[in-house]
Amino acid sequence: MRGFARLNIGGKWYRKSGNYGRANELDQYVIDHWPADVQVIWAKMDIWLGNDAAVEKTIDLLIADFNDNPELPTAIFMLGEEYYNKAFVKENEGRNDQAKEYFRKTINIWERIVTELPESVITPQAYNFSAVCYRKLGEHIKAVEYFQKVVDDWPAYQYAWNAQFLIASCYEKLASSGQMPTADAAVQICRACDKVLANYPDCMAVEAARNLLNRWNSVNSQYKGGQK
Q: Contact at 8 Å (CB) between 7 and 22?
């Protein structure tokens, strides 16, 4: 194993044990002595962890120095993932305002993957989980936009089936909140559920999609029959 790789792993070990000072020293040594190596991406990322104020600067530097490096999208995704995980911790603690703040920070980071980096295997990940964040924030129209991007552009993506099902769920929320007429939402919900069943017949959402479809087909029929 090369020297900088050992130092990088050592930095991670110190960080995991809570010795952030020593971890930062090792990561900074990697940055200073091997500035052109891919390990610098991870060293810079590790130094940022826990320092909210440094995140934008860190991403700026990583994009400037490693724009064409195939590991960069993964590194930036992992930066956002730190906030994503914190958001769910805060949500579980009932601290919804803080959870929403972390979801927004997550979106801001992952947005840079889709707008500033070449397409990669991480691109659909960024769209999909940003959509989850928008859904958590109650921004269901934006969530639908991002989920739709996933199923349209990456239908074989591992969570495309879930994105397709959550499109239906988002339309249901739009109907229940009054942001969309129930009749219009019913059409979109049924269409999204049909696509789950047709395009992803073996996925874990099949039963839920079938139940949702049956419920909203009934609503659809009532509107078509002029009962509402």
A: no
